[in-house]
Amino acid sequence: MMNAIQTRKQKGFTLIELVMVIVILGILAAFALPRFADLGSDARRATIEGAAGAIRSSASIAYSACLASNACDANAETGEEVTLEGTAIALAYGYPTTASILLAAQLDGDFDTDTTGEIRAAGAPSDGDNCLITYANATGPGVRPAITVDTDDC
User: Fold this and answer.
1) How far is Cα 78 from Cα 97, in angstroms, rounded to an integer?
2) Which is it for the CA torsion 147, 148, 151, 154, positive or negative?
3) What residues in the chain have per-residue pLDDT under 70?
4) Element holding 58 (H helix, E strand)
5) Is-above-0.85 flag for pTM?
6) DSSP output for 75-92
7) Is 33 helix (H, G, I), strand (E, B) or coil?
């Protein structure tokens, strides 16, 4: 009789097992998805903060290059320039001007600036006061340019 009834060996998964796995994956996705859904704003914020760091560094490098050069007057309001990596950078009191800061920081293709010194990622909307860097020329000898970063609502 034992030989007449063969024992069945299960191959594959039952429908209930598959449904349970799908339910568990759905629950995990419901908790994990909100953590990864808003990575775009974090990326925009990091881009703006990185660009601000490059702008601060390049302003200091240009000022140092002006001080080291005999041909540059760091006390002149306009008309002075230094050459950084083959590019002429216009200076105001030894620091790059708003028109030349993107060249000095080598961000001229990736970021745009306007006459007020607002710097935004290329192609970003120019309306609103968020996700931007504001660069204001140095106002006197030995006075650093004002650089502010706004990453609200990036």
Assistant:
1) 9
2) negative
3) 1-10, 38, 126-129
4) helix 39-68
5) no
6) T-SSSEEEEETTEEEEEE
7) helix
